[in-house]
């Protein structure tokens, strides 16, 4: 990173925040012998305002704790809000701010950016702190910590999670000739590794052939994480564990692309899936014109219930609808799900690392995290949240939490967004008939090798 002068720094910060607002929220004790100001960088995000708000609330708890300990220190939290439209843009802006030595004490980011900050020496390593404060971090789902790791350790704290799955229409499966026992057993078969990705194609084909439904399996029509589940099922993790570099394995890529290729040839995935509108795809599934819909748990609360009138009560929903984990590639293999945690991270240059860690520990409290989860349809980070009546009432979250046991993550590599765009272009090529599975694998390898840095190819 180049080091700019202070005038450039001020200009950059002004440019970043132009069009947005820099809101400062403070939590001050009644008396403060020594005020420690901790700055938190947060993207303006109406879909998750408590990501920052919970840190502000956590300061109240930490200050009470400090007072009880007889410490003269009290914490004040200042939230600097960035107007970036997405987490990628936000991370790129923040990397520039760190590059001119103007980085905040803490920030909120999408997990895949963690190692980009760590590589430049901007992040505090947290392993020892996590072990020191089990009351804050000890019950966070073990699987979620994987999203916060770089090759040499842990550099962030999981803030929330999601679950991606295949939703399915039980009515259509029954109309296609499958009995209730078969239909209702699909979730457990998927979790046990008995159900396979190819069997999913077979079931979807029978629905298309024997009912009035037009589609077997639908997926998002633009670049995004959901379809990466299919690649995970065939063993593609996209990251070299030793170096953290992106990893492309030709045979595993071809196997995953082969699933899309077979699904299109069987008339299960439509050849124009990637040309359809997002809302049109949702409508086809939720109005009974498709057997399976590959997407995420939040879609129920945001679209299925309010827009298409699917039953909001648990019993009513599962009478005719359901979801399964991504099936295994072969019988006896491992099922998959995909989550995309947002994380808290701490600057390596903060003057008060211990207080910052304790603050984010309090922000990770089960009750505060549940406040965020139930108001934004995100999955919590701790099993004790399942005991909260509010979380239990939000039954899609409670039910989907079991998928965290098997969940996968996008690589903690800032280049994965670009790689994902190449993968999506290859899916478009397959579904439109322009590429075979082998051609698609070669296309991804060639494009990634030419445009990305340090890609490992096997």
UniProtKB/TrEMBL annotation:
Its main location: periplasm. It is found in: Periplasm. Residues 1-32 form the signal peptide. One of its GO terms (cellular component) is periplasmic space. The keyword Signal applies. Transmembrane segments: none annotated. Keywords: Periplasm, Signal. Coiled coil: none annotated. It comes from the Bacteria. Belongs to the bacterial solute-binding protein 1 family. PANTHER family: ARABINOSE-BINDING PROTEIN-RELATED, DIACETYLCHITOBIOSE BINDING PROTEIN DASA. This is Extracellular solute-binding protein.
């Amino acid at each position: 990173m180049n080091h700019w002068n202070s005038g450039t720094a001020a200009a950059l910060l002004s440019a970043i925040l132009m069009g947005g607002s820099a809101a400062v929220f403070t939590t001050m004790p009644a008396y403060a012998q020594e005020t420690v100001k901790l700055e938190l960088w947060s993207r303006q995000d109406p879909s998750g305002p408590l990501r920052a708000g919970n840190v502000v609330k956590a300061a109240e708890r930490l200050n009470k704790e400090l007072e009880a300990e007889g410490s003269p220190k009290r914490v004040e939290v200042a939230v600097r809000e960035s107007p970036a439209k997405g987490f990628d843009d936000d991370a790129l802006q923040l990397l520039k701010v760190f590059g001119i030595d103007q980085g905040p004490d803490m920030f909120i980011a999408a997990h895949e950016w963690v190692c980009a900050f760590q590589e430049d020496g901007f992040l505090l390593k947290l392993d020892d702190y996590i072990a020191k404060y089990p009351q804050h971090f000890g019950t966070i789902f073990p699987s979620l910590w994987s999203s916060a790791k770089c090759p040499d350790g842990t550099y962030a704290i999981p803030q929330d999670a999601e679950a991606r799955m295949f939703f399915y229409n039980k009515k259509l499966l029954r109309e296609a000739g499958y009995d209730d026992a078969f239909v209702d057993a699909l979730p457990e078969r998927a979790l046990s590794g008995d159900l396979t990705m190819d069997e999913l194609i077979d079931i979807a084909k029978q629905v298309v052939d024997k009912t009035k439904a037009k589609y077997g399996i639908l997926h998002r029509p633009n670049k995004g994480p959901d379809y990466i589940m299919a690649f995970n099922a065939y063993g593609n993790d996209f990251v070299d564990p030793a170096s953290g570099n992106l990893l492309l394995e030709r045979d595993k890529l071809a196997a995953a692309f082969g699933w899309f290729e077979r699904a299109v040839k069987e008339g299960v995935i439509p050849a124009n899936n990637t040309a359809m509108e997002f809302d049109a795809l949702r409508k086809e599934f939720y109005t009974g014109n498709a057997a399976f819909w590959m997407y995420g748990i939040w879609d129920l609360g945001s679209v299925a219930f309010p827009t298409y009138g699917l039953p909001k009560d648990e019993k009513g929903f599962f009478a005719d609808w359901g979801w399964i984990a991504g099936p295994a590639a072969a019988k006896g293999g491992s099922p998959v799900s995909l989550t995309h945690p947002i994380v808290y991270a701490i600057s390596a240059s903060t003057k008060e690392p211990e207080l910052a860690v304790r603050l984010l520990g309090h922000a990770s409290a089960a009750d505060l995290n549940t406040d965020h989860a139930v108001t934004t349809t995100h999955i919590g980070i701790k099993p004790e949240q399942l005991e909260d009546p509010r979380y239990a009432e939000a039954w899609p979250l409670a039910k989907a939490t079991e998928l965290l046991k098997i969940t996968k993550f996008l690589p903690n590599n800032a280049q994965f967004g670009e790689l994902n765009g190449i993968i999506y272009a290859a899916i478009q090529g397959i579904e439109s008939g322009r590429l075979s599975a082998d051609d698609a694998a070669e296309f991804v390898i060639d494009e990634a090798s030419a445009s990305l840095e340090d890609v490992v190819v096997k």
